[in-house]
Design a protein that fits this description.
This protein has one domain: Vaccinia Virus protein VP39 (Rossmann fold, 3-Layer(aba) Sandwich), CATH 3.40.50.150. It contains ten helices and seven strands. The termini are far apart. The chain has a seven-stranded mixed sheet with strand order 3-2-1-4-5-7-6, sandwiched between helices. The chain has 281 residues and is an alpha/beta fold.
Length: 281
Amino acid sequence: MKTETSEQLKELVKEKYSQIAEQSKEGNEASCCGATCGCSTIDYTVMADDYSKLEGYVAEADLGLGCGLPTEFALIKNGDTVVDLGSGAGNDAFIARSITGEKGKVIGIDLTDKMIEKARANAQKLNYTNVEFRQGDIENMPLAGNVADVVVSNCVLNLVPNKRRAFAETFRVLKKGGHFSVSDIVLVGDLPEGLQKSAEMYAGCVAGAIQKEEYLEIIKETGFTNITVQKEKRITLPDEILNDYLSGDEINGFKKGTTGIFSVTVYAEKSESCCAPGCCD
């Protein structure tokens, strides 16, 4: 398989998530990893967590695309400015808004025009005047520096080709003393080649994810401190997915081994005394 460029990968993500924006949550759950991609009927909830009990939950904004509950761990306070990376139809943004309250502000950023349209329509229905959605690239956010108290993101950074740039941008937009909580998909050990390189899994599941230790090291090298894994769970992929890429013996070995795919929720802070690049601007 040829290696796609960063721009080609972004276009793939935009195409897939444009399809998802036009489907219901039920439609997404009944298709491969959130979008129809011809790999049998798989329940996408092997990745997603249940949001429905959280305050601020809006069913119309829940497309079943997450792999964690970052807002639950994000230590958002009343009056905070929160930025949601890869905001989709607005699910995490609306939950964040229920915590930050009328005095706070929530800004969602998404690469896909159709997602932005859907999120804005949802916010308008709810009469939320302190939630806004901006179309933009997480590697080059349409935000000034030092504006956010908290950044959240749910199963999005694994889709970003240049993760170092994405975390550098997260660092830039956070205020000194601010922090992030992001849920994401990471790898532990070397996945079988066919599974890891699958292009059709790229936009919704595993491809694009990197090793957990590399992921945490990028965050450290960016200048963040107090890096903490708040939650971790192994993703159990159904045999219907694995059968497309692995032999029977490989599937058994994969299930019994330490190698795997994990959902992690990671917390980190931008120090009050920070003088890393971009911090003292």
